[in-house]
Specification:
By secondary structure, the protein is mainly alpha-helical. The chain is built from 16 helices and no strands.
Length: 505
């Protein structure tokens, strides 16, 4: 879409456009590094704070969960009061809370800090994409800018394990959260000097009821998935019911409002809604993969955090590279065809994990991660561009928020669904030696790190037996989750064939 914007933002010169894009990479890196480095810190956090399996999942999930629930409201506020304003507030808050998270002394404190990070993180991501949509009005320039945005997100994923590995080998686990603080100053200075404070000249009214309904749709939905294996089935059913009722009420409220907070009619556009689902599936695959492989490399294969991070670097670099290459492929072959290829590569990656077998061959897993990174790089860049290109620039905040919501819901589901299934299979198959006390038994059954902690207290023969059983149980769970992820990727590719491609002819 190359139509002129009705937003109150002057057209920026070429040099300032690209300089502004460079500034916008700082919040992207801030969030991306935070996401990836936490997965690698799981063993260290488990050893220091001794969280239960449920607490560990909440430490990982609460950030994207809260973020997903608030992305749409924050995107709306960016459209209303200024995207740069919301971006800078979010950056200051994110860095400040990161410093607090570094000094948490128990799992619940860390969960609360991660929840606060989700609030401020929700201000960052929609603002970056919506500013890109308003700064780059030309189709080709915008596609390149979004590819760079996606590459920066992948670049943060590359830097996270490496820098995090170095920190974890020399400092305590809290040091990984302090990485956000040094990135605050250049973002503040560059943001004030280079970024336009664009906003929608005719925004929807502030509607607290709609904001509440969005949150009550997303939070219970993910909670239902997380609690399915640990709580009674009626808890999950009740949470799903709340989510469905709230989502229905939100849609009806938006349709009945002359100037709604978010125009839900956009979902009737096959390119927009299909791109969101592709975005969700791509992130679901990537985050679910990182969740298990980071634990496998450290707790089963015995690599240090830095070694594990370096081993995963090629796959993450390929994610970044193929995000950029996808722009060329898109111009030549069309975005839908490139997304189909990316989704099939993701399915192939999980098939390779299944081929590696229950012994979890590290070489095959690393090859699979490289294949997955290539596929996700292609799908994420083009799905984000397609979603943004389907709306006018003045509504970029809301559209960016929805696109980011798909991304974060995919991130939540990647850990919540695949993580919960993996933990359930692990708990059902691991064999614990006789004679351990109930607390040790519970911890060893809940997480792989719990089994390792118990093994360190047992005689050598029992310890070896326990870790062998835990490794086989964990990797068998990976086989199950891999089959699910591969199936979803194939279904998403069929969706592109049936829905997105015809709509772009």
């Amino acid at each position: 879409m190359s139509s002129p914007t009705i937003d109150a933002i002057p057209t920026l010169g070429r040099a300032r456009r690209w300089a502004a894009l460079a500034v916008l990479m700082f919040p992207v890196l801030l969030v991306s590094v935070d996401n990836t480095v936490l997965s690698f810190a799981v063993p260290a956090i488990s050893a220091a704070l001794a969280p239960t399996g449920t607490q560990l999942l909440w430490i990982i999930d609460i950030y994207p969960l809260i973020l997903a629930g608030l992305l749409v409201p924050m995107g709306f506020f960016g459209d209303r009061i200024g995207r740069r304003t919301v971006l800078l507030i979010g950056a200051i808050g994110f860095a400040a809370v990161s410093a607090l998270a570094a000094f948490a002394t128990d799992p619940n404190q860390l969960v609360i800090a991660r929840a606060l990070l989700g609030i401020f993180g929700a201000m960052l991501m929609p603002a970056t994409l919506s500013l890109i949509r308003n700064i780059f009005l030309d189709d080709r320039e915008r596609r390149v800018a979004i590819a760079i945005w996606a590459a920066a997100f992948s670049g943060g994923a590359v830097l996270g394990p490496i820098i995090g590995g170095l920190l974890l080998e020399h400092f305590w686990w809290g040091s990984i959260f302090l990485m956000a603080v040094p990135m605050l100053l250049p973002l503040l200075i560059g943001g004030l000097l280079l970024l336009p404070n664009s906003k929608d000249p005719k925004p929807g009214r502030v509607d607290p009821a709609s904001i509440a309904l969005v949150v009550l749709t997303l939070l219970p939905f993910v909670f239902a998935i997380k609690s399915f294996s640990s709580d009674g089935w009626y808890v999950s059913v009740a949470a799903i019911a709340v989510a469905v009722l709230s989502g229905t009420a939100f849609v009806r409220r938006q349709l009945a409002t002359e100037n709604p907070m978010f125009d839900v009619r956009l979902f009737t556009n096959g390119a927009f809604s299909g791109a969101l689902l592709v975005n969700l599936i791509g992130v679901f695959s990537l985050v679910g993969f990182i969740y298990f492989v980071s634990q496998h490399l450290q707790l089963i294969a015995g690599y240090s955090p830095l070694e594990a991070g370096l081993m995963m670097t090629p796959g993450l670099v390929l994610t970044m590279a193929f995000g950029l290459i996808s722009v060329y492929f898109s111009n030549r072959f069309g975005s839908p065809n490139v997304m189909i290829c990316g989704l099939l590569l993701s399915a192939t990656a999980y098939a390779l994990v299944m081929f590696a077998g229950s012994n979890g061959n590290v070489a095959w897993i690393m090859v699979a991660f490289c294949v997955l990174g290539s596929g996700v790089g292609m799908t994420e860049t083009l799905s984000n561009d397609m979603a943004l290109g389907a709306v006018p620039p003045s509504k970029a905040g809301a559209a960016s928020a929805i696109s980011e919501t798909a991304y974060e819901v995919g991130s939540v589901l990647g850990v919540a669904v695949l993580g919960t299934i993996l933990n359930s299979v692990y708990a059902a198959r691991v064999v614990i030696p006789q004679g351990v006390n109930p607390d040790q038994l519970s911890a060893a059954r809940e997480t792989l790190s719990g089994a390792q902690a118990l093994a360190e207290q047992l005689p050598e023969a029992q310890a070896l037996s326990l870790m062998e059983s835990a490794a086989h149980a964990f990797d068998f769970g990976v086989l199950i989750t891999s089959s699910i992820a591969a199936t979803l990727a194939v279904l998403a590719a069929l969706l592109v064939v049936r829905v997105i491609k015809p709509s772009l002819r």
